[in-house]
Design goal:
Shape of chain A: globular
Number of domains of chain B: 4
Structural class of chain B: alpha+beta
CATH superfamily of the largest domain in chain A: Periplasmic binding protein-like II
Distance between the termini of chain B: 75 Å
Radius of gyration of chain A: 27 Å
Structural class of chain A: alpha+beta
Largest sheet of chain A: 9 strands, mixed
CATH topology of the largest domain in chain A: D-Maltodextrin-Binding Protein, domain 2
Strand order of the largest sheet of chain B: 3-4-5-6
Number of strands of chain B: 9
Strand content of chain B: 15-25%
Helix content of chain B: 55-70%
Order of helices and strands of chain B: HHHHHHHEEHHHHHEEEEHEHEEH
Number of helices of chain A: 18
Oligomer: heterodimer
Radius of gyration of chain B: 33 Å
Number of helices of chain B: 15
Number of strands of chain A: 13
Largest sheet of chain B: 4 strands, antiparallel
CATH architecture of the largest domain in chain A: 3-Layer(aba) Sandwich
């Protein structure tokens, strides 16, 4: 007897399909979650925090970062690993980290300035490094001064990777020979070549040293009390600050001197040809080179009557995020440790030509590159002349005092207040000794 | 695109973290549980709770999960974020049902919800989600290539698309307000107001497209060159579409076919509902159907309209009556019946004529005017009924 076959109607097929989807939905969702837990993926979330006030370089920072060789080497060692790099502005970093931490979505690794890392560690937004064996393996590779800069009461905030310094950038076509001292710089302006200076304390710091005011300025900027010494006295500080502010006022009186509000204005002025000489961060050299090509000249900053300049230096460190899972933490530590590898450090230095290695056993080939020679000289000047600044300090204090000092320098240079009044105002910002 | 996909893939790595799982798993299970419970019987103590909308149940559950996690000293940021999404959805639904439903007719509310409010809500949730998991700024900077000389980034492209979409769906209200103000200020007709409404939408959208090209950094020379090349392609390929768009614009400017006008289409009077870029939507009162007619047909063929200079329509009715009846009485009877109908205009007056001599019956024609051109069929039917009834009352044979 032939058996009858019932063909399901399209409606019943649709209903059964819906039921199937409804039943499978939760299973699939759970499977996706479990796959998330057990799957073989490896992703490291890295946050880059570009140097303060260089926010317009953020995109460059991601596209052509100094540590590209490090990433390449790391990915060669871990081919299955995905590095997810994002850029966060220093001004919004704390807020971003707090928000991400409340969700458990914080980064695994942060690349940022040492003072910022110190501040974050004190607030519990990054993990201290000194508990990790990787720190004990890496510490001997670092200069003790560099270790001090990342050591706080709460522990070690990050692993130093490379140094950024202030240099002089100029247009070779207009300035064939960079000024070696402050008189030459004044002469350059007097000869009709436009020069630019910024009022931000980091950008103008170099001239404080050349005029002997650096020891008086460091406590104001860092909040660390003045270290007692034979030469230290309130009268000496007052005289040094007065000499510095007087020179700044004289410089501003030159018609060819442009007083910029910050490094961005200076860099844009040099790129456009409006300025022929500026103080610049070494981290902006790649950007300047792309726009200026061979016209870009780099030299150490000019010396002054009190000796060599005091270029501002900052060390970029790798700090550990606080939300990583154990495998992610292991990967983050491997990446941080690899950054001090001599070969990687040499490649970072040679390929970027804008940073200096943190590993003290890596020699910088100064003979083959004028730019590296200038960087090396700036590093030496920084180490020798800005010893107070090389101590560990928090970025919070700098963030508070920076606008006040900037405003004061601006007023002195524009003649709103006299150098004497400016000196007294600066001294009032000093912490109690 | 690969950067974008890699970014999304990277977010899955967050699932490796215990704090993330502790937040997501309970919320996921809560949602699945609620979906399951809704199909169960709603009897008993919890029945009333199950009668609440799903989003309210979800919100309450998320609040409970957050409290438990807080008590266990765990992170709750993600639960709170999902709670914010639920709350925003609840507020949107409340605004739609309690606020907008009072002011807007159901069709307008449905359009506003489905085309503007809900897509905007989804976009906001999507952006907030991306910002929580990664960096919107970084994702926006993902390069998509160079188009027409402009380096296009994902963020630029998406922002331009969103603005153009908002212009497309959100222009109706402002354009309607402006055209109403112009109508009140200048006293233009209803048809002109609707035409102005459409033209305003086209002009603003056109300006939006120009802004979008500028925003994306398109090289104008390149765009012009490609437009020149495309025009040749348009001539051969999609010339019908292009022709309809141009016809639509021309009809609007000329004013021969405007929304609100009544014209004849395939022998039936239809009202123009919408003059779109490609086609015109007509409403046929006879069967309440909407007819979509390509604009080109109005541009190339003769169109009969009843609303060009006025809205009056002259209708006529043919009938045959046995020759035994006095034609003068019949003419007077027909004119009287037409004059009694409330929809028939007094001026010009209804007119009945003897138009044909037959062997057994004479042919008559009754013509009359009405104010609403779309009412011709119903008025004519009414008059036929009245004629039959009167003939019956008088003991006459029904008309043929």
């Amino acid at each position: 007897m032939p058996r009858s076959v019932t063909v399901p109607s399209s409606r019943s097929r649709r209903v059964s399909r819906c039921r199937l989807v409804r039943r499978l939905g939760p299973v699939l969702a759970l499977a996706a979650l479990l796959q998330g837990c057990l799957g073989p993926r490896q992703t490291l979330h890295v946050v880059l925090v570009p140097t303060s006030r260089l926010e317009w370089l953020q995109r460059d920072g991601k596209d052509r970062i100094a540590w590209t060789p490090l990433l390449q080497e790391y990915q060669r060692l871990h081919p299955g690993l995905q590095l997810q790099v994002s850029v966060v502005d220093e001004a919004h970093l704390e807020e971003t980290l707090r928000r991400d931490r409340s969700r458990g979505l914080g980064p695994d690794l942060l690349v940022l300035r040492a003072p910022v890392a110190n501040a974050l560690l004190q607030q519990g937004l990054v993990e201290r490094l000194n508990d990790q064996p990787a720190w004990h393996r890496s510490q001997p590779l670092l200069e003790p001064a560099l270790v001090d800069r990342v050591t706080t009461a709460a522990g070690v905030s990050g692993l130093p990777a490379y140094n950024i310094l202030t240099l002089a950038c100029f247009n070779r076509q207009v300035v064939p020979r960079p000024p070696a001292n402050l008189d030459d710089l004044m002469g350059l302006a007097a000869s009709g070549r436009p020069i630019g200076v910024a009022v931000d304390p980091i950008g103008i710091w170099w001239s404080a040293g050349a005029l002997g005011a650096q020891d008086a300025m460091v406590p104001i900027l860092t909040g660390n009390p003045r270290v007692a010494s034979a030469t230290a006295s309130p009268t000496a500080d007052r005289a040094a600050l007065l000499a510095w502010l007087t020179w700044l006022r004289q410089l501003a009186l030159q018609s060819r001197v442009d007083i910029a509000s910050g490094p961005r204005e200076l860099v844009e002025g040099l790129e456009s040809g409006r300025l022929s000489w500026i103080p610049c961060y070494s981290s902006s050299l790649a950007h300047l080179e792309r726009s200026m090509g061979k016209r870009l000249g780099v030299a150490p900053l000019p010396a002054g009557p009190s000796g060599p300049p005091t270029p501002f230096g900052t060390v970029m460190v790798m700090a550990l995020g606080s939300d990583s899972s154990p495998p992610q933490r292991r990967l983050a530590l491997q990446l941080a440790e690899l950054s001090l590898d001599p070969l990687v450090q040499r490649e970072i230095t040679l390929e970027s030509l804008m940073v200096l290695p943190a590993n003290r056993f890596v020699s910088v080939p100064v003979a083959s590159s004028g730019r590296l020679a200038a960087l090396e000289q700036a590093q030496r000047q920084f180490d020798e002349r800005s010893k107070l600044l090389t101590a560990s300090f928090s970025a919070d204090r700098l963030r508070r005092t920076q606008p006040l000092v900037e405003d004061l320098l601006w007023k002195v240079m524009l003649g709103v207040v006299t150098p004497q009044q400016g000196t007294e105002a600066l001294l009032r910002l000093s912490p109690p000794s | 695109m690969s950067t974008f996909l890699a970014e999304i893939q990277g977010w899955l790595a967050f699932l490796d973290r215990l704090p993330v799982l502790l937040q997501l798993l309970p919320v996921g299970l809560l949602l699945l549980g609620l979906l399951r419970l809704r199909r169960l019987s709603r009897q008993g103590r919890w029945g009333r709770l199950l009668d609440l909308p799903l989003v309210v149940q979800l919100l309450l559950g998320q609040a409970l999960i957050a409290l438990v996690l807080l008590a266990l000293h765990q992170r709750v940021g993600l639960v709170l974020l999902l709670g914010q999404f639920s709350l925003a959805w609840l507020l949107l639904r409340l605004a739609e049902r309690q606020l907008l439903a009072r002011w807007l007719p159901p069709e307008s509310l449905q359009l506003l919800s489905t085309r503007l409010l809900r897509p905007l809500f989804l976009l906001a949730v999507l952006l907030a989600g991306i910002d929580a998991l990664g960096s919107l700024q970084d994702l926006a900077a993902v390069p998509l290539g160079v188009w027409f000389g402009g380096a296009i980034r994902l963020g630029d492209l998406l922002s331009v698309l969103v603005v153009l979409y908002l212009l497309l769906v959100g222009l109706h209200l402002p354009a309607a307000v402006v055209s109403l103000l112009v109508q009140r200020g200048l006293g233009i007709s209803e048809g002109s107001r609707r035409a102005l409404d459409q033209i305003l939408q086209y002009v603003i959208f056109g300006l939006g497209v120009i802004w979008a090209m500028g925003r994306l950094g398109f090289n104008q020379t390149g765009v012009l060159a490609i437009a020149g090349g495309l025009s040749v392609g348009l001539g051969f390929g999609i010339k019908e579409v292009f022709s309809n768009i141009v016809s639509g614009l021309w009809l609007l400017i000329e004013g021969s076919v405007r929304p609100g006008e009544v014209l004849m289409h395939e022998g039936e009077a239809c009202e123009v509902r919408r003059l779109g870029p490609r086609a015109t939507t007509l409403w046929r009162s006879g069967d309440n159907a909407e007819v979509v007619v390509p604009n080109q047909s109005f541009f190339t063929a003769a169109t009969t309209t009843y609303t060009r200079s006025d809205r009056m329509r002259r209708c006529s009715l043919e009938l045959k009556v046995a020759q035994s009846w006095n034609p003068e009485q019949i003419v007077a009877l027909l004119e009287g019946l037409a004059a009694d109908h409330p929809a028939v205009l007094a001026q010009p007056a209804p007119k009945a004529r003897l138009v044909e001599f037959g062997s057994e019956r004479y042919g008559y024609n009754l013509s009359f005017s009405i104010a609403d051109p779309l009412g011709a069929a119903s008025v004519t039917a009414d008059l036929r009924l009245a004629i039959c009834r009167r003939f019956g009352d008088l003991g006459m044979d029904p008309p043929a």
